[in-house]
Amino acid sequence: MSRPYLWRRCSTGSPGLGRMVRRCAMNGGEGPNSYARNSSYQKGVVDVAKPIIEEEISRKLNIKHLSSTFRIADFGCSTGHNSCAAMQIITEAIMRRFEIEGLISQIPDFYVFFNDKVTNDFNTLFDSLPRERLYSAAGVPGSFHGRLLPGAALDFAYSSCSLNWLSEVPKAVLDNTSPAWNRGKIHYAGARREVREEYASQYAKDIESFLDCRAEELVPGGLMALLVPAVPASWDPNSAYTTTTEIYLFGSCFMDMAKTGRFSEAKVDSFNIPVYLPIPQEFKAIIERNDKYTIERMEVLDNPAGKHYLAGPKARAAYWRAASEGMLIDHFGSEIIEELFDRYTKKLAASPLFSDPNCDKSIIMFVLLQRKPESCSSGS
Fold first, then answer.
1. 220-278 confidence digits (pLDDT tens)
2. Rounded CA gap, 156 and 121, in Å?
3. DSSP 8-state code for residue 227
4. For the chain, how many structural domains are there in total?
5. Residue 257 is part of a domain; what is its CATH number?
6. Of 53, 320, 342, 375, which one's alpha carbon is 20 to 30 angstroms from that of 82?
């Protein structure tokens, strides 16, 4: 198997991407606060999605017109542990498809492109690649909200637990002259309607850009499997929580610390978390506005097992720290991190609601899209 290599291409996303690109990489390495050690929820999502991915590859993948190479990309791969598991699922399912069709002699060479932020820990990712694998590997640093690969370069695209991250914080929520100024909060959870609308608008733009760019990179008829964090259309906040309400609780820790003088309230006002979780109907509507795909399958995964890996306040706080620590240090400095997550852990522990994973009503959508043969646009 050839050695993995790093393919760096500048993103053609919006001009505001640069700073947020630096902030949002997950914690690297293998240490106690790393993403590798605190992404069991995401692993549970992959485990639950495995039979669905296998079934859809068996049903939908057209292998009769494939070339001698089959190219796959994972957009938002992070440090690789869960990504490697997903790539194994996909490549093995494609292999079985050839075997069932009696085309063993025509099995293509597999190439996998691992994509994430330019600050992503690709060294840990490449170190985690299994020795016995079916594919050659390359790293593609850059924002997936912009173009990353040549036209018609991909046969299969994949992304898991990444499309909830925005390309940037909506500008209006940080503008003290705007009706959407999010004073005293770090997210749209618990904020005014105008704040949520700005987040929703930014999310729609980002997903539209993601879909358009992947349409340029996928071959006609190519497949894209997405595992998208979301929330139900309705749920009772008195007896359940979602990721959004967890971020609201986390945000309250910032104002508590501001009141003790650890930093100013203005420092909090100038920071918001670039995360948005749609309801399923909202996500479907964005796809349907795009004329480049057909929706082959879309469903909510049944209670992803990963929720039960987050058993207790410490595990939940560590999970969020692995995802957010970089951008927190970038804005507030490293000296506040231990106190911040100690406060957050204690708040989680004080709430029977948040300490019980059975009360978590956050959902994961499985979406399978197929690139239409027609309406292939040029450029991005």
1. 999 999 999 999 999 998 899 999 999 999 999 999 999 999 999 999 999 999 999 99
2. 24
3. E
4. 1
5. 3.40.50.150
6. 342
